[in-house]
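#lab-general

N.A. 3:47 PM
ok so I finally got the sequence cleaned up, no stray characters, all 240 residues accounted for. can someone with queue access submit it? mine expired

B.Y. 3:52 PM
send it over

N.A. 3:53 PM
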Amino acid sequence: MKRIALFLSLSLLLGGTGWSADDAGTAAQQQVWGQYLSQEERQALTRMIPSKISRDNDSEENDEAEGIARSRAAFSTMAVDYASSLAELPSVPFQRGSVNGSWIIPEDAHSSRVLLYLHGGAYVIGSDVTPRAITAFLARESKIRCFSLDYPLAPENPYPAALDNAFQAYRMLLQEGTKPNDVVLAGDSAGGGLALALLLGIRENALPMPAGAYLISPWADLTQSSAAHTAKSAVEINIT
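B.Y. 4:20 PM
back already:
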């Protein structure tokens, strides 16, 4: 679980903008991390943030495209590193039409049940592979087949590209014969918000609803103006 908590911290950090070394070292954040991570892991995370994510918005040398490319590469590298302990559950690439992603299927998984996972990364970074530390853990512990969707990212693919692709993935599962009550949606950060949007869209389009949803720190308020952002600003990771 410590490895999962550390990965989630990394996903939230890499999903934000305007990070500096000072952001990682606040006493409040260290206190929160201390509930889940060892001292060694907290030190490693603090070192990674400024070294892996250098986003100097005032520097003319760092244009947006290069910054996004660096963030995507750093996120992918760290995600693979933190999933290494779960390598016994292979990730199998999948493509059907516009639906791309990967399956993780434990040997003792229920053959009829599916977890449709939507990754985090502020809709800008991440892939079906980056949440593998989470998806492999969930698949193993719940004994369920997990499909991690590689939805199209912004800014190359603006809204509603990600949501449309999530719809296509859900429809694909139903068309293949998976019963709605055998499907659970899941996601972290932006992926959690995307799962919420998918639930609303399923209802509004009168499609059969899935059995439920498992949301990990969902980014549900893109305006970041809700009371929760203010009330928890001292202890939550600060994304500016």
